[in-house]
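Render this sequence as a predicted structure.
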Amino acid sequence: MALDRAMHPRNRYRDKPPDFSFLASKYPDFSQYIHVDLAGNVKLNFKDPEAVRALTCTLLKEDFGLTVEIPLQRLIPTIPLRLNYIHWVEDLMETMGIKAQGPGSHAFIRGIDIGTGTSCIYPLLGATMNGWHFLATEVDDVCYSHACCNVERNRLQDLIQVVKVPEKTLLLEALKENPSVMYDFCMCNPPFFATAEEAKGAKSRSAHRPPPSSVNTGGNTEILAEGGELEFVRRIIQDSLHLMKRLRWYTCMLGKKCSLAPLKEELRRCGVPRVTSTVFCQGRTSRWALAWTFYTDVSIPSPPPKRRKMEKLKRPFTISLPSTVVEQLLGQNGPSVKDSVQEVCRFLEKVLAELKVQFIRVSSAPAEVSLFITAHENTWVHARRKRRKEQQASLTEMACDGDSRSMSSMEFQAASHSDSEHTQSPEGHNSAGVCSVGKVESGDNEVERDLDLPGMRMSGSSKHSVHGDKPVLKSLVNVKGVDDGDQEGNASLFVELHWVEGQNRDSLNQLASVLRNRLLSSCVSPAAPN
């Protein structure tokens, strides 16, 4: 089962995914659908409708004490996604001052499930978890029959009423018989698609998008509707304009993100005072939810928090130094991989000092050296052009010096091609000094933000004060060595530049290009004379 840390915080499966091994040992009907791969991992084939149905029924039994039967010809609900929706409705109820209650609660909360399906999943979960009362509507005969049986099977008739309604009936027609009854919310998982071709993915999935990870067993009334989910929800909006405050919150779950914006615009055009939305995430699957109310004295629930930018770093910029290049830099029988890493790191420190970029060494793996860099101005854009201008200006001054010493063409050419590697390191720089500030890992792990705290010893451009404004760039630079067994063409050293923060990632790309050019140019031996 695909799970994700972005699930609702109260979702029971967010931090504790189902244990297939335990479930198989306890429920023989489920055990026949699992298999163990060569690595010893217990797997379930989510493209097998019988396996998906067995998992859903097993989880409902184990975690909620519910016994349900679902035909293979109708939609099989996934429990984590439905729980996300239930918990979001709980959040909406809290905006009205109504706390989520447990079973047996004296708080009378009434909801509507539009198109409840064979499993009657939302009423069963809402009644079991919170003691909510439900009016569950259904237009399909098969779904209506199974929904009634599942309610009776779990003895929840006092909380759940399943009603058969005419086709295309949503809210207005279903509630006209009891005009005095007030409801707290409605829920709806509308049919996503307008045509059978769209349901098969002929129009809705691009060529590069991976196929669905699970099987779709929904019947026509469950997955198809005239105009798709967009027109379906628009009809609910029109019904809500007549019912107004008879329901506190109107909600629906969308399968397409592109449906969200036009529906919000529709609500704005209709003058609905309060509108909110959220996203339900579980693994590779995402659904979008929309809610609106005609009550103005409610607070809109906060959207789900976005993942921190540093929770998972993007792929770093990588500079690869092949074995042949490293040999030219360090000599064919030069130092070990560990020493090579130190040498390359010292070279990078020299270049960073020339660019007036602050850096500190941080603790790292044995065959790795890490630098945390901070730049308050972009000094590396057109850095090569700037160096050439400075060198030309210096040479011009030397040529015009009153010393009257003439330079030969060979001397002038040698001076013109001299690189800044001969520049001495900044005063007080100790290449062997390492400032240990705690373990900092590369790759997808988080980088600590307190690496540049005041009082830490900075190498290189430490004489430059740290400005109060936001830095142009902060990055973690890792120099790694790999023992390639002397195989020709294999990379033995890597330099990785990880984005931490700054004005934009282009600055890191530019700096990576400068460092790469300086590294490779330093490794090219001069051509032998004829």
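Summary. The CA atoms of residues 506 and 512 lie 10 Å apart. The first strand starts at residue 34 and ends at 36.
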